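Pipeline run #58 for the internal structure catalog. This entry was flagged by the ingest filter as a single-chain record with no existing model, so it goes straight to prediction. Upstream metadata was stripped on purpose; only the residue string is passed forward. Reviewer on rotation: M.T. Logging verbosity set to normal.
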Amino acid sequence: MILSDELYTKFISLVYQRTGIAYENNKKYYVQKRIEKQVERLQVNSFNEYYQLLKFSENTAEFDRLMNDLTVNETYFFRDFPQLRNFAEEVLQQVVKEKQKNNDYKIKIWSAACSTGEEPYTLAIILQEMLDEPEKWDLHIIASDINTNVLQSAKIGLYDYRSIRDVPPEYLEKYFTLRNEKYSINASLRRSINFRKINLMDSKAIRDVTGCDFIFCRNVLIYFDDRSREKVLEDFYNSLNPGGFLFLGHSESVGRISSAYKSQRIGDTIVYSTHK
């Protein structure tokens, strides 16, 4: 079967409408191979029949399966360590001092597009290590992704050496258990994390995520066009507390997309905050 340019455009338009992820023409081979996999699994007669199934079925399970194949999930613990260090040593401390003044001992973080869980578990480790008395705090991390397969892996919390290669040895001993050549996340970290499926184009779902002190959405907006980025940034702004912080990937910027955020340089990291 040959996927025509016209039908390819329909597929990527459907993906864009539902997820905000924009695939260009030079991604046709990548997208087609993943569509072919689903067509063979379902044993439908044509690409068009599969497209009709995705577009008009009230059950989103098939669309979710396609997105599980299309979305890339490259991550590991303590990825982009300099940015995380600036978060831990500077931004987090700033927020903690302000909260303590107000006798507020709740910290809420949203790891948007959490993939297989390395980022939210890393953030949980940082909170445990950087707070003087972490047991006094109500720590809540929301970890979300559109890909249901990676969310399931994240909930299991079992990792190979490639994922944990940058974890400091003392943290590896303290927060992981080695089981059959895999590293399992200890229960002490799992308790603070709530995994859930969220499509970043679903404003209704995002409205349920409120009161965040920090949002991490790193290396995700590069897959969106400006219109989708603007929508996501607006929803993030509404999810953050006044004075809350947004962390993006190094190649991403709020600047020309939204004027709602204040930007500041901390070390070699640019962070974005809401107005108090």
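catalog note: The mean pLDDT is 93.
catalog note: The beta strands are 106-112, 138-145, 158-159, 176-179, 182-185, 193-197, 212-217, 240-248, 262-266, 269-273.
status: ready for reviewer M.T.
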